[in-house]
Design goal:
CATH class: Mainly Alpha
Distance between the termini: 27 Å
Number of helices: 18
CATH superfamily: MFS general substrate transporter like domains
Helix content: over 70%
Strand content: under 5%
CATH topology: Growth Hormone, Chain: A
Number of domains: 1
Order of helices and strands: HHHHHHHHHHHHHHHHHH
Shape: globular
Structural class: mainly alpha
CATH architecture: Up-down Bundle
Largest sheet: none
């Protein structure tokens, strides 16, 4: 890497990644804080596990429905304007969750939250592919995506103090949680509007040599001329590589998200711990996932390939979820959770970096949105089935057995993707 390119990548990392990372941190907090709020909210409002699962999952249905259109609009209006719009809207809707009283209101606001947030993650994935060359992209995406497990850490750490505000100013603890955690996205959205650059050509903090080196290094990535017609989108969706990437992401995202959405209740039931102890374990899992997300990104960049990390990480997930489903001792369940988060962190970075590696033919923007959109339909359905299984059996064990099975299927899809890509390059 030339000195100009090295300096350009370093400057872009410091100028772009912290702001987007904080945005994604609060995006994920506002997506899953309902898992901690539910320990009070479901009792207060009389919500069954099925009602909760349907409401929690509706976020992902809405997210899936408009994710591709959102990325098309990002291409039209620019990343700065569109990402700021997303953050401000979802922050305001997240705050409105504190006024939920009925199942219909719960369903409606979760659906609106999904509509407002749709496009942020795949939009950022596309945006980063226009700023970071292939050999630096895994680390950059890992530094951004690390906000996902860090959000789990933050939620586990602050949930008990926020719920302890119960009764202050006449509001329940879960209402305070929604209000306090909905404010930062609005402020970060305003910061994005003011400070996030759209493309390298438009910034003054790169020298002419740095700008030219960076633009040349990313010229084999999307530059804004994708086919946005219906036939163009269908062509991307029919690509076998996109289908396999979607299968991997759907299976791992649906299983991991469903677990996180019920993790406090699962741990409280399976171990007998209170919300504070369950929160500490969830925080430890989030930190573990964050660490291995960064480690995974560094390893994939260093090796110049993503598949080894992906295969090994999915193996950790399989073992971890098997232990969680089968064990009865609290220390074993805790061990299983940590192992699953090792896998989750490492395979997450490998997956999203693979999207831009595999989709080099100017289809990254639509391809990433198509993968994420289709996968989120699975994330919509699985919490509903998980809640129904809990209501039918009286416990979480039956639903937990789906987790290792889904990761085995994801591993098989990852092997098929590796063989397909290797065959094309042979």
């Amino acid at each position: 890497m030339s000195p100009d390119l090295s300096r350009a990548v370093s400057k872009a990392g410091w100028r772009i990644l912290p702001l987007l990372g904080f945005g994604y941190l609060f995006a994920y907090i506002d997506r899953v804080n309902v898992s901690f709020a539910s320990t009070q909210m479901n009792v207060d409002l009389g919500f069954s596990a099925t009602v909760y699962g349907l409401g929690a999952g509706l976020f992902y249905l809405a997210y899936a429905l408009v994710e591709i259109p959102s990325n098309v609009l990002l291409m039209r209006f620019g990343a700065r304007m569109w990402l700021a719009r997303i953050m401000i809207m979802w922050g305001l809707i997240a705050i409105a969750m504190m006024f939920v009283k009925t199942p219909v209101q719960f369903y409606s606001l979760r659906f609106l939250l999904g509509l407002s947030e749709a496009g942020f993650f795949p939009g950022v994935m596309y945006y980063l592919s226009t700023w970071f060359p292939t050999r630096q992209r895994g680390k950059a995406m890992g530094l951004f995506y690390v906000a996902n497990p860090l959000a789990v850490f933050v939620m586990g750490f602050i949930s008990k103090p926020l719920l302890a505000l119960d009764g202050t100013a006449g509001f329940r603890g879960w209402q305070w949680m929604f209000m306090i955690e909905g404010l930062p996205p609005v402020l970060i959205g305003l910061a994005i509007l003011l400070f996030l650059p759209d493309r390298p050509a438009k910034v003054s903090w790169l020298s002419e040599g740095e700008r030219e080196s960076l633009q040349k290094a990313v010229t084999d990535h999307p530059q804004g001329h994708e086919d946005h017609s219906a036939s163009g989108i269908l062509h991307v969706l029919a690509d076998k590589r996109v289908l396999l990437l979607t299968a991997i992401y759907l299976l791992t995202l649906a299983a991991g998200t469903t677990f996180i959405l019920s993790a406090p209740a699962i741990l409280m039931e399976r171990t007998g711990w209170d919300i504070g102890h369950a929160g500490w374990l969830i925080s430890a899992g989030g930190l573990t996932a964050a660490a291995f997300m960064l480690i995974g990104g560094w390893i994939t960049d260093h090796r110049g390939e993503r598949y080894t990390v992906l295969f090994v990480a999915l193996g950790f997930d399989i073992v971890g979820y098997l232990i969680i489903a089968a064990a009865s001792a609290p220390w074993l369940i805790a061990t299983g959770l940590i192992l699953s988060q090792v896998g989750r962190g490492a395979h997450s970075t490998a997956q999203v970096a693979l999207w831009a590696d595999v989709l080099k033919d100017r289809r990254m923007a639509i391809g990433a949105a198509a993968i994420s959109s289709t996968a989120n339909i699975g994330v919509w359905l699985m919490p509903i089935g998980f809640g129904m299984a809990k209501d039918a059996t009286g416990g979480y064990v039956a639903g937990l057995w789906a987790m290792p099975v889904m990761h085995v299927l994801a591993l098989l899809a990852a092997v098929a993707l590796w063989r397909n890509v290797r065959g094309r390059s042979a």
